[in-house]
Structures are given as C-alpha cells and as structure tokens.
Specification:
It is built from 12 helices and 2 strands, in the order αααββααααααααα. The chain has about 290 residues and is mainly alpha-helical. The chain folds into 2 domains: about 100 residues, no CATH class; about 150 residues, no CATH class. It has a two-stranded antiparallel ribbon. The relative contact order is 0.09.
Length: about 290
Amino acid sequence: MWLVIILYTLFLYIIYRLIKFWIINPWRVQRDYSNQGIPGRYIPIVGDILRQRRAYLADEPFSYVKETTAEFGDYYHTSFGPFPCLNISDPALIESILKINSRFYHKSELSRAIASTVLGYENIVLAEDENHTRHRRLINPIFQHQNINSMISLIVDITSSFLTKWQINTIDKAYPLILDISKEMSNLTLDIITGCVFGIEAMQDIYTHETIYQSIRVAANEIEKRIYNMIIIIPILNQLPLFGKRRIDQCRQDMKKIVLQMINLRKYGLSRATCKGVLLFLFFLILTHFH
C-alpha cells in the first residue's frame, strides 16, 4: 500500500515538474513581458523553434531574425522551446545590457547549455561576475597596442600567401577555382594564431590544421542538430551519450590534445612566439575551455 502511494506521488511529482518546466515557467515570463508592453508571441512548449528550424534547413538562418524584426520591431519576446527569449537589436539597449548594467544580467540557461557542449563551463565565454573579470585581466595584455602591432606583418604575410596560393591554382587550371571557403578561412585563422603564438613551425603542421578543422566542423554540425531537435535543452537526455554527443565529446578531446601539445612545445622552448606579449595566456585560457 505504502509503496503504491510513494510511486503514485513520485509519478505526480515528475509530471508536475515537466509541466512546470515546459509550460508554467515560460508562460509566467512571457506574461510579464506582455504586461510591460513588450511585443512578441508565445507558443507553448515548442516556441519559435519550428520557424527557426525552417530557416536553418533552407540555409537562410538570418531570415527568421529579419522576419520577426520586421513584425515586432527592435525588441520583442519569443521563446526557444520552453526558454523565453527577449531579442534586442537596438544599440542603446544593447549597450545598457552589455556595458552599463552588465552586473544585472547573466548568461541564460539556453546559451550555457549550447556553449558548454564543447567549451565546458569554466572559461571566459561562460564566466560570470568576478570570475569573468579575472579572465579578462589575464588576456588584456594580449591586446595592448604594441603587441597588436607586432602581429601585423605576420598577418599580412600569411594572408598574402593564401591569396598567392589561390591565384596560382586559378592560373594552373582551365576551369574556375572552387574553394571550401569555410575550410580556407579556418586554416587562415589557425595559421595566424599558431604563427603569432608558437611560431612558423607550428603553423606548418598539416595534421594540426586538419584535426582542428574537422573537429570544429563535426562538433558544430552535431550541435546544430541537437539544438533544432531540442535535445540540447532537455534535462538528463542532453547528458546521455546519444544523438551525436559521443562525436562531440571525441572532437572536444581531440582539440584538447592538440592544444596541450602546442602548449608543451612552447613551454619547453621547442617553439618560439613570433610576436611580442604574453600570448601564451591565451592558450592557457583556451585549454580551460575543454575541462
């Protein structure tokens, strides 16, 4: 008898928690938005995720933002699944949130759920308050004027070499050159970072380039699928090794291994930074993203 009562109570509690998570809490927030005169729409449970998914599948991810902005204006409320969203494109409001009153705003559960899939929680992207300030202080020297200036010549040289390579490939072929721009830009960015921090030797490592590019590409694709299938926002289910999570975790480990190797080379003097400044701090911070 008592076992039946306990099981029945547990079942009702689970149902209540699900209803509260998917319906009651979002409705309360959306009601508060409406009471303040903020335009927008509220669709229970799924929110605007179907509209966003259609834009994503049509390869026009920004069409959703354009349509909703045209319909509601510079600020409006919607929801991503059960998560209420306040969307803002007004520069003055953005400055108020990110700069003037930043201490009153924190990362949403949705953004943390998405970003932490690859980066983990202990990093400058998801850090809050004093922890974020501490991370910012660590990387500030990287962006000092003299350090930025020391990178310019190398950045120009690397970019010029990419342009030259493309021009040669165009001249040597009778048909138009076809490039994977995403891959080329990833390699260009990686060349600049590794060249500035670890020197030319690290920049010429083809294995490093390919591993990082493939890891980022695979992880990004799997995360997009999990977002638009709502897997990433469902508690417990988003932690199970299903729906691409194993591939994401493997990509995360591969990138961590590469970063560790590069840091060890730099630490033991086997590579040398091309530019001035304490740029190694940047990669120590990147390393924390994968913990």
